[in-house]
Amino acid sequence: MSQAKTTVLKIGGSVITDKNKELGVNMEAISRLADEILEANQRNLIIVHGGGSFGHPVAQEYAIKDGFKDKSQLLGFAETHHVMTVLNGIFMDALIWRGIPAVSIMPSSCMTTRNGRINYFGDTPIKQLLKMEFIPVLYGDAVFDTELGFTILSGDQLVAFLATQFSAKNIVIGVDVDGLYDTDPKTDAKAKMFDRLTLNELNKICGQLGGSNACDVTGGMRNKIAEIIPAVEKGIPVFIVNATKPKYVYKALKGENVKGTLIEKE
Ligand code: ATP
Ligand code: IP8
User: CB within 6 Å of ligand 2 — which residues?
Assistant: First the structure.
């Protein structure tokens, strides 16, 4: 039974899917990341993945994040949830057939939100998984909301929530850019990357960060940063790394030197 402190790893939907093509899977990235996770051999790891071109387009089409307005959205909720289970299944295949004891946990079955924020979490299964050295895998999901009827729970909110719940030693966030920049590096060639930021420094620049260039109902980089701030406040360091580049996630998990942005409390 494991006593080691947990690492929470987020794999961005921008990495494992093709955000320009609805339901486009990036199988090469999924396979390589599964190899890296196997090789890193972490004892106490929670993985969360994003929605990319699976969850976001259908959630946007039916305005699922805004909550229940009329019955035409019911199919949209079902579709959003379903395509996330499909993406999750592809991701789980890659992990499990490599010999990683990963177990998928469906957020909509163990969590609810209130106005978009997690207000209920049945933690027993994940606690048990961690104790027995399984690797729980969660994902951004369409979930039930006590005020809105339903909404979208982002992988980023999940990451910060789980890291706090399980007193994680760190968070690693894998995206499709090298780290956090002063502006969006995809639209501004002069964007400057930060190697390290304290919470004070981060709070000062938060307003100027961009969202996402692709369809993203949960707000891209700006929202990602807003979500992780409470975890950093609790002393959990966050490392943002380029998960499209081979071995970057591996090195981040192993604590080896690799390019990225480290965000720490002080
Ligand atoms: P998903 O929500 O599907 O999991 P993701 O987490 O992989 O996706 P996004 O939410 O799209 O990724 O956020 C990453 C994107 O944020 C990058 O592709 C980048 O273009 C954009 N971005 C906007 N502003 C910034 C910034 N200041 N620094 C770095 N990236 C930024
Ligand atoms: O991609 C949202 O999670 P994210 C997933 O982590 C859905 O923002 C269902 C759109």
Answer: 13, 50-51, 55-56, 59, 80, 84, 140-142, 152, 154-156, 217-218
